[in-house]
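Holo model, zinc ion. Inputs:
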Amino acid sequence: MFNQIDLFTDALGLQNPWKVTDVSFDVNESRVDIRIARTKGSKVKCPVCGKECSVHDSKERTWRHLNFFQYKAFIHCKVSRCNCEEHEVKQVDVPWAREGSGFTLLFEAFAMTLVRNMPVNAVAKMIGIYSDRLWRIIDHYVEIAHTSVKFNDITSIGIDETSNKRGHDYITLFVDLDESKVIYATEGKGASTIASFKETFENQGGEISKIEHVSCDMSPAFISGISKNIPDAKVIYDKFHVIKRINEEVNKVRRAEVKENDNLKGTRFIWLKNPENLTNKQLEEIASLAKTNLKTLRAYNIKLSLQEFYKITDSVAAEAHLKKWFFWATHSRLQPMIDAAYFIKRHWEGVLNYTTTRITNGVLEGLV
Ligand SMILES: [Zn+2]
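Output:
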């Protein structure tokens, strides 16, 4: 016979002496309340030194956990305070939450993952908490990053803002690219976030002049913020943002051409991929489209040639390639590709700087 108590104990990853003792669903309130207790007679340990000690008293506490479908989940537990000879009265640690938080670790991890991809207000709404509570979670994890990083050793940073542009509040992240750690996060976007980063960085003992490399996208606000606040750094425009921009231009060519050429219908995703990632069927499709002298195929080949630039490690050869590419793109008679070429031209140094530094914001994609 299935045992709901054991099931929830396992689902929460609880181990002896912790155990679920009660689960109750309230259908009207759409909530599930889970009670956890420690096994009777089990020893408590001081959270500072780990020594077993006597129980001083217990305090009822509640944590918000990940929803179970539409049910909001809450964990309740009477948490003991132990009486350590050396450290006096302290609340014992629980495995599902950090000290002082009203959320479980899983809930916080989920919230931090969402924050990376959506505006803070939208995340708060989605997970059903007030945005100031969400900001306290964000601040906590950024604070951890602060205390574990020596700011005076940092030489390469990456800057990125949350990708969702629909909401009104953004979060801009600053990452130590050598250590792959978030060192600063702030509300907002653009030039002012870089000024506030500089202030914090210097307050924590960092020297702005020691930052040699900054990787970011090509937004004018970042560019002006960097030249004002981190003037000595070499700027590298993030490769993924450059390619994304070119993909957008290729797509413009395709969208215009699809109106006059039915064969192009349903091919949008082909042009986003590299040939080595295409299926045989997709390759055949390109081969048959190639016979019809497609504009889209020309645009695609221009994109592939720009990707070739990113493989070249010799800086003289890389610049020669980029110049040839610029000539080709500007003579393609495809307006979106001409626009792309002039866009690269305006950001020439920062695109070329990749060749010698090999720096990208890639690490940011997997962070937070
Ligand atoms: Zn102790």
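Residues 46, 48-49, 51, 84, 86-87 surround zinc ion (CB under 6 Å). Residues 239-365 form one domain.
Archived with the compound record.
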